[in-house]
Amino acid sequence: MKFYIVDAFTEELFGGNPAGVVILEEGCEFPSDSIMQKTAAELRYSETAFIKPLVPDQFQLRYFTPVAEVELCGHATIASFAALAAAGLTGFNAQICTARTLAGDLRIKLDQGLVMMEMGAPQCLGKIQAPGELEELYSTMGLTWPVQVASLESIDAVLLPQIISTGLPDIILPVKDRSTLNGMQPNFPALIKLSQNYQVTGVHAFALDGCSSEVTAHCRNFAPLFGIDEEAATGTASGALTHYLYTHQLITRGQSCTFIQGEAIKRPSKIRACVDPQDDRLIRVGGRAKILAQGMIHL
């Protein structure tokens, strides 16, 4: 099987979020779950995507972290289609493909090096608003409630955490400012327990202060339940954040958003997102990717 190491959501090598990508030979079936799990653990990236080509421009994708299979992974999807283009299995200019995942079928557009994917329809799975719940959540993240958050219009407003899924459920967590965001030191054992209790992948924290027309928000993502203490770029959570900002009237339909993530772990990432101008249930997330290495896996 051919494999690639791809830095997703970046225009430069050693930026963004690295993913493993394994492309099966045409007509071959997926290896056993245990083999894919061991392969992902051996590659040691937060996610490794395994790709089975189907008919032209349709591909089945499965995603493994070092410890478990997940239904969807945004940055590994971006990495996958960059690798497929490099392998000559799809075009890279104005090409529309379909990714069949455990979270559903996703339309992927490749255009001049930019890979944009349609996320699953956003689901709001609950607000975290009881005083005891808020105190537990923020203290787990090394913060203190109440938290004052500045909106994009620089008007102070209290925004509450919310569980949202566009493929995977995450707690979208507003924090006061970038200084607070950068200083977060979560209690990871407590965060694992909290993630289990809320049945979420993890916590996606964001700050709006100091942003501009070029940057919508700065973010950090934590998912220790799946073996990822902190992730440099998170596509599914970026989709959830886009829906959160839209429902709070902080962005509008069709507005292009840019999220900066990974700064705290020295892997700055640029994630692009938007709500479809005609359908606010359709969110697109994407970015660019750079291929670092490729080779063969012999099983």
| Helix run count | 6
The helix/strand order is: EEHEEEHEEEEHEEEEHHEEEHEEEE
Main β-sheet description? 18 strands, mixed
The CATH architecture term of the largest domain is Roll
The name of the CATH topology of the largest domain is Diaminopimelate Epimerase, Chain A, domain 1
CATH class of the largest domain: Alpha Beta
The helix-and-strand class reads alpha+beta
Q: What is the terminal separation in angstroms?
A: 8 Å
Mean pLDDT: 89
Number of strands: 20
- So, the CATH homologous superfamily of the largest domain? Diaminopimelate Epimerase, Chain A, domain 1
Rg for CA atoms:
18 Å
Low-confidence spans: pLDDT under 50, at least 5 residues? 150-156
Principal-axes geometry comes out as globular
Strand content: 35-45%
How many structural domains are formed by the residues? 2
InterPro entries: Phenazine_PhzF-like
Active site: 47
GO molecular function: isomerase activity
Protein name: PhzF family phenazine biosynthesis protein
Task: Describe the SSE topology.
Layout: E1 2-8, E2 17-23, H1 33-43, E3 48-53, E4 58-64, E5 69-70, H2 74-86, E6 95-101, E7 104-111, E8 114-118, E9 123-127, H3 131-140, E10 149-150, E11 156-157, E12 162-165, E13 169-174, H4 178-182, H5 188-198, E14 202-207, E15 217-223, E16 228-231, H6 235-247, E17 257-261, E18 269-275, E19 283-287, E20 289-296
Parallel strand pairs: 2-3, 4-6, 13-14, 15-17
Antiparallel strand pairs: 1-2, 1-20, 3-4, 4-5, 6-7, 7-8, 8-19, 9-12, 10-11, 12-13, 14-15, 15-16, 17-18, 18-19
